[in-house]
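Box S2. Input/output pair 1.
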Amino acid sequence: MGEAVEAAGALGRAAGMEKAARAQSGWYARYLWAFAAGQLVLVPLAVLGRGPVAVTLMGVINVLLVSGLSLYAARQRVVRRGFGMKHGVLVGSWAAVFALMVLLGTTVVGRSVPFAAGAALVCALPLAVGAWSEMRGAA
């Protein structure tokens, strides 16, 4: 009988932790929105930039964005179940789209401003969808 009570208590604590994780998971949506907004600067720089100044500027902005977001993520106390997989899929999707857009923008399209603007939105899309999904899941 004591084991059943102990097991029930452990399940109750686990449910409480899951509830707390859901309640505090809004940080990840904010993280993804910031990352998506960064694409509006990084993608045009990658597609349109030429020479060492553009490369240096993109590198500095990218390091600042990733460092800031990493610090922000590291300070969070609660992470939902399945977070690692979801984050891996989102970042993997973004990386594939980013690489494709930069490749097309610098080789096929020829550094077009309209393409760069559209590519920035396309690169921000997986992150924005992830943020929207996270906001719905936290509710």
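Box S3. Input/output pair 2.
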Amino acid sequence: MDSKDLSTIPDDMQIPGARIPDGWQLIACVYDGRPTRRSGTVSCYFDNLKTSKKYPLHESRYEVIVREARTGKRVTTLSVPGTTGDNGGCPSFVMDTGDTIILKPLDGRTLGEKLRPVFSATK
């Protein structure tokens, strides 16, 4: 997953500039996406290759585990759908193995919407 996909997470849910771990209550860990079904094809352009290549595009879901920062105790597990951005979901780079597929990436806004009820409950 590209970090640019998470750059749209709401400001009030990002790690504060002053990293004060004592103030952290929850940590959300995002795990690899899993394909759910094929939804089409996407053409991705890669600067280093100076060419475009078509890949199968799949709907996806990402597992997000929220833990207490101090204890590591699991608070909840969420399943968050991938969404298509302006670039159709193309990543910055691909390890093309011949059977490569592209998953719709996790968007920060979507992640924030799913996390807000959990984070709001701790205030």
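Caption for Box S3: Residues 108-120 form the longest helix (13 residues). The mean pLDDT is 81.
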